[in-house]
Design a protein that fits this description.
Blueprint: H1 6-10, H2 17-33, H3 35-39, H4 44-53, H5 58-66, H6 69-75, H7 80-85, H8 87-129
Helix pairs in contact: 2-8
């Protein structure tokens, strides 16, 4: 399980390792379930095209994720609860978690790609046997 990273310490966000583990599990589960989340944060051009098309963006997905009750329950206890109640503190937490979500999405894309390459190699090996 991941530990609290420098992005939390650098912004003085007092998320404990237990809270981070819980949020990480929820985040990883949601990212695997959502194709939009797996795409991760996109460049300005791609985001602009999504906005013109009226499609949801990474930011829309992330804001929906942060407004979930289970995420709020995790962030409403312990030392981070006081920070969670203030707007500037909430922005710091959002920024840190958004960065972490982007990293998780990147790792998930790599995992899916690697899994696809392995499947393709296995299929090719099976076809060569026949």
């Amino acid at each position: 399980m991941p530990k609290a990273t420098a992005s939390f310490r650098g912004r003085m966000v007092p998320i404990t390792s237990a809270q981070w583990t819980t949020i990480y599990r929820i985040l990883a589960q949601e990212i695997r379930a959502s194709p939009l989340a797996t795409e991760g944060p996109q460049g300005r051009r791609a985001t602009r095209l999504l906005l013109l098309a009226g499609d949801p963006t990474w930011n829309d997905w992330f804001m929906q994720f942060m407004s979930r009750e289970d995420v709020n329950a995790v962030l409403s206890r312990g030392d981070v609860a006081e920070m969670w109640m203030h707007d500037s503190g909430k922005e710091n937490i959002f920024d840190c978690l958004r960065f972490q979500a982007g990293l998780i999405a990147m790792l998930e894309r790599k995992r899916v790609k690697k899994q696809g390459i392995r499947r393709a190699a296995a299929m090719k090996a099976r076809q060569q046997k026949i």
